[in-house]
Design a protein that fits this description.
One of its GO terms (molecular function) is hydrolase activity. This protein has eleven helices and eleven strands. It has 329 residues and is of the alpha+beta class. The chain has two domains: 208 residues, Beta-lactamase (3-Layer(aba) Sandwich); 88 residues, no CATH class. The strands form three sheets. The protein has a six-stranded antiparallel beta sheet with strand order 2-1-11-10-9-8, sandwiched between helices.
Length: 329
């Protein structure tokens, strides 16, 4: 059922490749892979790694939660406590919690890379650009860039991801790019080539590829393993109380957890068939991971829907159809 649905989407050129897994903490109910790493390229296989894009965000949020459990920081710490250069800015009092819930006031998908071509210049733009008024929920990659910087005051971010998430979860091939054996993303005019193995997100490129909002690559088996861990309650990654706080709704209107998105009805990117307590995250490249705590189930969908262009939004209906079908397995 899922294979046929995704094969039709490939025939419609929504993506060149897809991989999926649906299951519980105890095992897999349905999984598969189809297509090619790029059009007319080699087949996608088990070792192929996918640009997770913003699915990086909840993995970095797990790092922040692990640091909080160990007393290295508090979720209610102000930004300036960990990044002193923000002490004299309008962002000094933003809390770690507000960054995690996208309620910091920092703007959303700003293409800073267009006018700030170095890491130093881009980070300075985040630090000095005035905040817009209000504290409504606004999805902000800038907030997760700052969370990556906060985490990095304790150790390099890639080492923290390995220590607190990928190693204990058994995700043996997940890493920040550049990586080999990757599924292609966009034919990028800025870079003058089809991007394969380098992070798709341009702001992440300028930042060096290791950052809090994007940059991780993983094979299907690793996202499958993370889904199983989360469906089972998140041990050994987090204590039960910490996990419960992460996935609870912390906002009014759009439902946001700590690094996770809740099931907004009717506006959820994965449709309305999942249980009301479902949480997860999508990635711009066509990736997603969702979990239903009440049913103990996870749903992984990996595609390269930006290949060779991001112009189409057909993945939106494919995502909904995939999850509508997957819940019936």
């Amino acid at each position: 059922m899922l294979a046929e649905l995704l094969a039709r989407a490939r025939d419609a050129r929504v993506f060149s490749a897809a991989a999926w897994s649906v299951g519980t903490a105890d095992g897999v109910l349905d999984r598969g892979m189809l297509g090619t790493r790029w059009w007319d390229g080699p087949a996608a296989v088990e070792t192929s790694r996918w640009d997770l894009a913003s699915v990086t965000k909840p993995i970095v949020a797990l790092v922040i939660a692990a640091l909080a459990e160990r007393g290295a920081l508090s979720l209610d710490d102000p930004l300036a406590r960990h990044l002193p250069s923000y002490a004299d800015t309008d962002k000094a009092s933003i809390t770690v919690r507000q960054l995690l819930t996208h309620t910091s006031g920092l703007p959303g998908g700003t293409p800073l890379w267009r006018t700030h071509g170095t890491r130093e210049s881009l980070l300075e733009a985040i630090r000095t650009t005035p905040l817009p008024p209000g504290r409504r929920v606004e999805y902000s990659s800038q907030g997760f860039i700052l969370l990556g910087l906060i985490a990095s005051t304790h150790a390099p971010l890639d080492e923290l991801v390995a220590e607190y998430v990928t190693t204990p979860a058994g995700m043996t091939a997940t890493a920040f790019g550049p990586v080999p054996d990757a599924v292609a993303t966009e034919d990028c005019g800025w870079r003058g080539r089809v991007v394969t193995g380098q992070v798709h997100d341009e702001n992440a490129v300028v930042l060096g590829g290791v950052c809090g909002h994007a940059g991780l690559f993983a094979p299907l088996a690793d996202l499958e393993r993370l889904g199983q861990v989360l469906a089972g309650g998140a041990a050994p990654l987090l204590k039960p109380a910490t996990h419960a706080e992460m996935i609870a709704g912390h906002t009014v209107g759009l439902r946001r957890g700590l690094g996770w998105q809740g099931l907004d009805v009717p506006g959820s990117p994965v449709g309305v068939s999942l249980a009301p307590d479902a949480y997860g995250h999508t990635g711009f490249t066509g990736t997603s991971l969702w979990v239903e705590p009440s049913r103990g189930r996870y749903y992984v969908l990996l595609t390269n829907r930006v290949h060779p262009s991001r112009a189409s939004d057909a993945i939106a209906s494919v995502r909904r159809e995939f999850h509508d079908a997957a819940v019936r397995i």
